[in-house]
Each structure stands twice: as C-alpha cells, then as structure tokens.
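Quick one from the shared queue. A colleague (R.T.) flagged Small acid-soluble spore protein Tlp as missing a structural entry in our internal table.

Convert sequence to structure tokens.
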Amino acid sequence: MAKPDDRSDNAKKIKNAIENTRHNIQETNAYLDEHAEEISSTEVNNLQQKNTKRKRAIEGFEEEYHDET
C-alpha cells in the first residue's frame, strides 16, 4: 500500500534547501578566494558556473516556498 502524500513539512524542507544552497555558494566563493592561484582557469570557470546554477535553483526554491506558505 502506498504511503499517503504528506506535504505538511514542504515549506520547511524548501527553506532548508535554500539555506544549504546559499551555504554551498559561500563555500565555493571562499574556496575560490583562498585558492585562486592554485587552481586552473577551467576549474574556476566550472565552479562559477555551478554557483550560477545554484542561484537559479534558489530562485525556483523561493517561488516554491511562497506557493507553500
């Protein structure tokens, strides 16, 4: 038997996802600042692209969060 669809804590999960994604952006930026001279331009570019995707994801999460609240 399938579990019932319980969405009572969706807003909390989305908020956690937003916070975790923001933290990942900050960690990546700190890494780039600390190791700028040690890492290749390709890796810098890849990490910057990841952060761009993360920022877009946050926008989506925030829309979802507003729908849930």
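Helices lie at 10-34, 41-68.
The chain has a mean pLDDT of 93.
Added to the table.
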